[in-house]
Amino acid sequence: MDHAEENEIPAAAQTYCVERPIFSHPVLQERLHPKDKVSDSIGDKLKQAFTCTPKKIRNIIYMFLPITKWLPAYKFKEYVLGDLVSGISTGVLQLPQGRGRRIAFCLGVCRFGFVAIYLTEPLVRGFTTAAAVHVFTSMLKYLFGVKTKRYSGIFSVVYSTVAVLQNVKNLNVCSLGVGLMVFGLLLGGKEFNERFKEKLPAPIPLEFFAVVMGTGISAGFNLQESYNVDVVGTLPLGLLPPANPDTSLFHLVYVDAIAIAIVGFSVTISMAKTLANKHGYQVDGNQELIALGLCNSIGSLFQTFSISCSLSRSLVQEGTGGKTQLAGCLASLMILLVILATGFLFESLPQAVLSAIVIVNLKGMFMQFSDLPFFWRTSKIELTIWLTTFVSSLFLGLDYGLITAVIIALLTVIYRTQSPSYKVLGQLPDTDVYIDIDAYEEVKEIPGIKIFQINAPIYYANSDLYSNALKRKTGVNPALIMGARRKAMRKYAKEVGNANMANATVVKVDAQVDGEDGTKPEEEEDNVKYPPIVIKSTFPEEIQRFMPPETVHTVILDFTQVNFIDSVGVKTVAGVKCETIFFSSFIAQVVNDLTRNRFFENPALKELLFHSIHDAVLGSQVREALAKQETSAPPSQEDLEPNATPSTPEA
């Protein structure tokens, strides 16, 4: 016997046998003892919110000062070299740059960061790819050494590209040569870093070497004066004295301030999510908002530009081995050093060198175009979100593009819930497993039972579609069923000569029924009357011979994937009529929704709820067997109720 056979699990050990009652909802509730619920009154919530505990204090400190959380856990030997190289490399790219300030801070304190959940991964990746194209086009004029107007807003990418192409005849060959040389060296160096990253203690700081070499060559050969190469130029030294913002201008800029705050946050959270997915950590949207708000509020006192995420420098920091916020701190110290003392050292740095560094580090963003084949194979809806976000952000600008993308993403959610998939399930023979009958040949339907499944909530937007799909796939049409029953009763009444028979009600559950044309009875506004679900009908054999044979006696509605149902959905479900309708695999929220909408005014309806599909199938088979016994036996005196089953007329 070989090793594989020795480790083979016996077939008997791969099976299980369960013996338990059929779990309808009442039976299951008898076995369960609910836990005491925590009070959710407004007073208790306020009391809990304002209760001070050590845990809450610690969480608040972590939220406002995240350094207190990650610094004690900092792995010095593992991170410090990468952070040092990354901080220096990112710092040398920084130039003095610059009103969403307090708005962002207030939004963060108010927990507005939840909006980040609407920035799905396809949206984020399409948005950051479009942002990368914006950055790329803005760098072209520096790479080619041409002078063009700065464009912003709708179609700014097109205008910027056209402007560069129109001036390409005036390109500076020296600037282009320097830029391409740096571009090639960086590409080769990054490939080397990637290939030998396991052997290198830290990535080689290529950007830093490029800046130093570019500055040295430019200064040594006097490229600005000799070849008219565009350089960084004079950098202002020192910090401006702090001053309060001019509040008289607030009414003129508050609309733009809100827009800048939203777009700045969106760009930041998009970049953060991209890097978080790559490196496996979580992002707190509220914390990002607070950080942006504090930076802009303090920076406004020194007349800085609005602060947000820099796509290019974030990629440089990540690509050069930065692991923690310490790299950002070092980059900031580099800028402070340049502002206070060493700015003159970078005056000869060619702009083409900076543009080449930025373009090379956009490679990762451009690689996101490879998402398109993946989403084409996996999800056309996510592909639509990606393309819509990219195109709108590219041509409408990042602000309008972002708004368009979020709207499209929300519309896809509505579309998915409004147009879900509907399936009729069958049983894998001799098991309690139920699968889509259209998917596998081995799956068979159970005679007389239809198991119908929807993969979305049932609410006003899809209730009609749900009803139509249920009729189409199960063959259960309430209007036709009730019409056939009335027609059979009339035929029997006509045959026996009893005209009152046509008005008799043979359904044991007394409730209103739909008309023959499928119309529903009028409903009182204050007392909603749902169309009934027929639990069981008892027809004498004399009437049954006038009715067409019923192939479906039970419909089981599988609610496994239904997480809520509104009042319109309850009416739709209640309008289904066959001999029996069961609910299976329900969740507590759905039961609460049905209860709030007075679906269980008739207590017998709770007997229709079952723990699983298999419980519902077994319950249906038991009820059907009992019903056949009742219909085959002579009617008892209890069944001969007034207005229920008339007595047989005398001969």
TrEMBL record:
**UniProt key word Iron:** no
Region (Disordered): which ranges? Answer: 624-651
Q: Which InterPro entries match?
A: SLC26A/SulP_dom, SLC26A/SulP_fam, STAS_dom, STAS_dom_sf
Q: Which GO terms describe its cellular component?
A: basolateral plasma membrane; lateral plasma membrane; lateral wall of outer hair cell
Q: Which GO terms describe its biological process?
A: regulation of membrane potential; sensory perception of sound; transmembrane transport
The question of whether Transmembrane helix is a record keyword is answered with: yes
Which superkingdom, per the lineage?
Answer: Eukaryota
Spans through the membrane: 103-120, 126-144, 174-192, 249-269, 289-313, 325-346, 353-370, 390-415
Span of domain STAS: 439-576
The protein's predominant localisation is membrane
Q: Give any GO molecular function from the UniProt entry.
A: spectrin binding
Compartments where found: Membrane
Q: Which PROSITE patterns match?
A: STAS
Keywords, comma-separated and alphabetical: Membrane, Transmembrane, Transmembrane helix
**UniProt membrane topology term:** Multi-pass membrane protein
Q: What is this protein called?
A: Solute carrier family 26, member 5
Task: Output the lineage of the source organism.
Answer: Eukaryota, Metazoa, Chordata, Craniata, Vertebrata
